[in-house]
Amino acid sequence: MKQVFLTQQHAPRLLVFFAGWGADTTPFRKYHPAACDYLLCYDYRTLDFDATAFASYGEIHVVGWSMGVWAASQALSDKPWPVKSSIAINGTPYPIDEQRGIPPEIYQGTLKGLTGASLHKFLRRMCADAAAFRSFLEVTPRRPLDELREELVCIERLYSSLPSASFRWTQAVTGENDRIIPPDNQLRAWQEQQTPVRLTKDAHYQESTFQHYLQDRWTRL
Fold it and tell me: pTM for this structure?
């Protein structure tokens, strides 16, 4: 797992954002949470997680998106850190699951058919409309295709071999227009977890949602 501080000014609280599959820092550098250091996690070919820096913070807030919800659930389980809030956006702790995540057949189809053209279509499906997709293309992650394929393979292997995580999310955000992880599956997963859900009209990647949870809400806390 890659861990990059996008803001590190020794603030009293830390915002940790676990991004989705295929991510890097490019789409998320523009957010500036007030009075927070801001750590981005991505690349889940391993779930090795260095929490050395956590000791200096009295307050930690976690946001997970898509595959990052699963990765955070695993990385942060059974740890004594002072996590004050945890928000799961358009993801679940069960990334490959017929009823609670991405159906296995669809996941396998994405993996086996991954090309530059199919990735382009996948990214388009993440976005609400053509305008949102054009905006996203300006900040698309810059990672090679072979690396993204390897990440999918590793996620599948890790998910099938690791025990269920004990980490609990304080709130889930589910977009009714998510075309990557079926909204009904998300709702089913969070009902099982007894996690409160905020239902929105969002697509899988919704810039306004990141603007809120990675920046705007911190000006009011």
Answer: 0.97
Q: Which strands, in side-by-side order, build the sheet including 197-200? A: 2-7, 36-42, 13-18, 59-65, 83-89, 171-175, 197-200
Reported as a pLDDT band with limits 50, 70 and 90, residue 199 is very high
* CA 67 from centre of chain: 5
For residue 30, how many other CB atoms are within 10 A of its CB? 13
Identify which of 38, 27, 42 has the alpha carbon closest to the alpha carbon of residue 205: 27
Closest CA to 179 of 115, 113, 117, 133: 133
> Alpha carbon of 146 to those of 8, 45, 46, 55, 141: distances in Å?
31, 12, 16, 36, 14
CA–CA dist 191, 202 (Å, integer): 19
CA 5, CA 42: separation in Å to the nearest integer?
12
Q: At 36, phi and psi to the nearest 5?
A: -135, 145
CB distance 58 to 36 below 8 Å: no
Q: Burial letters for 1-23: b for 16+ Cβ neighbours within 10 Å, e otherwise?
A: bebeebbeeebebbbbbbbbbbb
- For residues 174 and 181, the answer to whether their CB atoms sit within 8 Å is no
**Architecture in CATH for domain 2-219:** 3-Layer(aba) Sandwich (3.40)
Mean pLDDT of 115-127: 98
DSSP string, 165-214: P----SEEEEETT-SSS-HHHHHHHHHHHT--EEEES--SS-HHHHHHHH
Which tens digits make up the pLDDT trace of 34-55? 999 999 999 999 999 998 888 8
